[in-house]
Amino acid sequence: ALGCELRHAHRLVYAEGLALDAPRSVTPIGLGCRICERRDCAQRARPPAGGRLAVDPDRRTHVPYPVVADGRSAPPTGISGG
Length: 82
Known about the structure:
The longest helix is centred in the first third of the chain and has 4 residues, at 6-9. The model is unreliable at 71-82 (pLDDT under 50). This protein has one helix and four strands, in the order H-E-E-E-E. The protein is elongated and about 45 Å long. By secondary structure, the chain is mainly beta.
């Protein structure tokens, strides 16, 4: 994967045909998986620091490391079933 600041995207061949001025076409990225605050990231390579993993053997999610945040249960972001 290749990521850059939006202001530089027009210079990349990979940006051809993308609507760079449309907010929905942008995926925010963090500084690194361990310190990134995006809890619903499907591309996360490592569990985030500062959270307890919400492991449920009867539930599949699109997030590789669902986290319980602030004592609450993880949001229902996945597909029910196993």
